[in-house]
Design brief:
It is globular, with a radius of gyration of 21 Å. It is an alpha+beta fold and 382 residues long. Helix 2 crosses helix 13 and helix 7 packs across helix 8. Strands 9, 10, 11, 12, 13 and 14 form a 6-stranded antiparallel β-sheet that branches. A 4-stranded parallel β-sheet has the order 3-2-1-4. It has a 4-stranded antiparallel β-sheet with strand order 5-8-6-7, with helices on one face. The chain folds into 3 domains: 112 residues, Rossmann fold (3-Layer(aba) Sandwich); 134 residues, D-amino Acid Aminotransferase, Chain A, domain 1 (2-Layer Sandwich); 47 residues, no CATH class. The protein is 34% helix and 24% strand. The longest helix has 18 residues.
Length: 382
Amino acid sequence: MITKEDIRETLKNYDKEKLTIATICSHSALQIFFGAKQEGFKTLGIYNNDLQKKTYESFQSSTPDEFLKVSSWKDILDEKFQEQLMKRNVIIIPHGSFVEYVGSDNLLNKFTVPMFGNRRSLEWEADRGKQKEWLEKNAGLEMPKEYARNELTHGKLYFVKFGGAKGGKGFFKIRSAEQLDEEIEKIVRLKVLSKTDVKSITIQDYIPGSRYYHHFFFSPLSANGWKINSDDKILGGVTLMGIDRRDETNIDDLHRTGLNPSEMREIGIMPSYSVAGNTPLIARESQLPKIFDLADKAVKASIKLFPPGMVGPFCIETFFTPEMKYITFEISCRIVAGTNLYPSGSPYTVYAYGDSALSTGKRIAQELKTAIKTNQLEKIIY
């Protein structure tokens, strides 16, 4: 595994006054580039087709200063390509597409370019078993109960999902072990997912409730916001950057067909939870203490399990039940696409910072500027 010391040695050769913020042209790149430019950083976009480049050239305020093309996303791991990035003093901002296309294992073992945040957190994000160990066992967050195939009870409703940053691709509901086998066979046959993808299966209780996605930012450099305390020592601060819900295709509108899942399968309709877009959300103000408590527990546990823990943006994904309880079903340890709703800031960032134009992308750039000024880059780069 690439160590913190490896990255520290690379940073020694960087011109800290000429850092370039870079990422793949996808997911939340427009926001990342826009925020970096607002804070005076050079930007670089990685792309693999000309249509993609033309798209990012169409948003002048977010067009990266430089583009680099790869034939395949895995070419990002090529030693010569990585050398090109490091010659430009690049700091990579990982987002969902970056993690999915390059692979969390590859980022841990083959990618030597400095990245914003703690790359070990991506390992804990990608492995649902590790997520459960972190969030349920160590942080004490309530999560849906999970089952093996032989533990399924006929007639009870379960939700099935797969590992990786695939945006809900291939997820489905079942009522029996037999239905599980049928659905897996179908999504492989229809090439929705591969045989390898479906090996990383998670079966859990279906939780009736609203899905809320809470965007946070943890800074080990500042105690602004919700203070993270341990043994009377302040470890940093967490800010609530925004909240969203997600529009999913085609599951959100299949009720209009009037068909049950079995009838849909018979005519070749596969319900899909793939994320198509995001909508903004404001939580009931009385629920904010509970929301911050989720972040507090998750951050403290992360510091113990994989120090220095989550650094920068993360998202705690929950069901909000009729009993006013938050049940956590997932965590994303990097910027999420829901933050794209708030390029000019959210109501929460206005209240926290008094800055009506603070996006998560801009907040990342500000953290880098602070680290440069205070000679603390090593705290937020790995």
